[in-house]
Amino acid sequence: MPKRSRAQELLAFEIAFYEKLLRAYPDFVDVLIPLGTTYTRAGLYDKGLVVDLRLTQLRQEDPLAWYNLACSYSLLNRVDEALESLRQAFSRGYTDLAYVQKDADLANLRRSPKFRQFLESLTSRQAT
User: Fold this and answer.
1) Range 59-64 contact pairs with CB under 8 angstroms and sequence separation of 24 or more
2) What is the biggest distance separating any 2 CA atoms in the chain, rounded to whole angstroms?
3) Four-residue CA torsion sign, 62, 111, 115, 125
4) Which residues of the chain have pLDDT under 70?
5) Residue 103 φ/ψ region, left for φ over 0, alpha for ψ in the -120 to 50 degree band, beta for the rest
6) Of 28, 42, 69, 99, which has the fewest beta carbons less than 10 angstroms from its beta carbon?
7) Phi-psi category of 4—alpha, beta or left, where left has phi over 0 and alpha has psi -120 to 50?
């Protein structure tokens, strides 16, 4: 079995720590948020998606929860769902268009013509 790097060991420790907390407190948002991030950093995109879906249930009006859900969908190349989640983020008040255009997690989404249409609609709305 290959030796794990220090970074991999730390990620595994973080995941185990957050998962243990969630077993005791399943709806603890302040644990779900870093767990989702840690899953993504570890390349566990399916698990990150599950967490992000849960966060959008618990914090339905939180634009950042919807933005993170868009990132999870994009990482899984589920472009239509990523775009819909991004729409939800902007409809709830997300505003950082510059970051959307450079966030590596959204790379799959940015390749979509539907994304370009969405971007154009946002920039035209901001211009008026």
Assistant:
1) 59/29, 61/92, 62/92, 63/89, 63/90, 63/92, 63/93, 63/94, 64/89, 64/94
2) 59
3) positive
4) 1, 126-128
5) beta
6) 99
7) beta
pLDDT at 126 (0 to 100): 64
Does residue 1 lie within any of the structural domains?
no
Residue 39 lies in a domain: yes
Domain range for 52: 6-127
Whole-angstrom Cα Rg for the chain:
16
The DSSP secondary structure of 12-44, one letter per residue, reads: HHHHHHHHHHHHH-TT-HHHHHHHHHHHHHTT-
Question: What span, in angstroms and rounded, lies between the C-alpha atoms of 41 and 31?
Answer: 15
The residue type found at 55 is: L
> Token digits for 28?
């603890």
Number of domains composing the chain: 1
In the chain, helix, strand, coil percent, each to 5? Answer: 75, 0, 25
Q: Six-digit token pair at 56?
A: 């959008």
Which structure tokens are listed for 70?
């868009």
